[in-house]
Sequence to fold (354 residues):
Amino acid sequence: MKRSILPEEDKWIQKRRLQKRWHKVVAVLGLAVALGTVYALALPAVTLEKECQLPEHTHDDSCYTQILSVTETVPHCAAEVHTHTASCYDAAGELRCGYADFLVHRHDSACYDESGKLWCSLPEIDAHTHTDACYTPGHIHDDSCYTQERGALTCTLHAHTEDCWTETENLVCGESETPEHTHSESCYETTRELTCGIESDHVHTDECYAWEQKLTCGQAESAEPVLVCGVREITLHRHTHACYDANGGLGCGKRQILRHQHGEECFRTEEVPVDTETLTCTDETHVHTARPPGQSHRQLPFLPWLPFLPWPRFPPWLPAGCSPGRGRVLPCRRSAPTGHPTPPKAPAGSWLWP
Fold:
């Protein structure tokens, strides 16, 4: 029984020795790779520090210029607006100067400064010319505009009124007034007696009166159209020589109404005092950077000895589906490429498969 167990123990001991050797080899190789990588990454900075001979420029006071004023564009609208005086009116108080005291204007982007604040002092006024839509047809009175009202009595027949009657109160209780009995309204009876002396049974009706029509529509009768738009008519017009007569008087019968929108003529440049410094240096001397010219800061150095390291064919730490090639570990694939066999799996329980 012992003889059958000893060969199995020998195989296990040899396998264990082999695993220990690979542990040492892999540890030495890992340390070599780590040290080589650190050296390769530090090499560009060392090379830059030792090999770059170009001088570096540093700004000083001579690179700056003192600025005492700057040029700014400010609004300066030159639009003139007429102002009415006493000479603009006639004896009846009617305006006769022929000029409007306003400008047709609508705010746009030029009316606001850089901060969005409105600087324009002109009010917004739109031009308007009346059209047919601004009028309704004139009004002519008809029967619906009147109400019938009863006027004076025109009937000559006598109709009794309250003045034709006399009222008398008679005591009908039949008792004398004593301390035990005091007459009240129930003790009396009122009788009416016709005293006008005219015998008539006529009662006045609507036909006994004169009827008048009273206008109640509240509208003025006019055959001309009536303006109902409620907007003041403003028609643009500029006086020319044809607007004046031989004596120089204004004869066109129109007011001069102009439109104004701010343009370049409404702005001017001004020198605004300031106290600041600005960089005016044009020296483009070499400035040291963190890497040599032509090398990207993301580029990793090539380690020439990596392909020749004695990597195992199938490192045991690779996941299933990863395949090495020419000494370098290639990216893992979920499945083997077409035309290539899937790498064999390591036996269960073994840490290294040579």
User: Anything to note?
Assistant: Confidence is low (pLDDT under 50) at residues 295-300, 313-354. The two ends are 32 Å apart (CA to CA). The helical segments are 2-51. The beta strands are 64-75, 135-136, 146-153, 165-171, 188-194, 209-215, 226-227, 267-279, 324-325, 328-329.
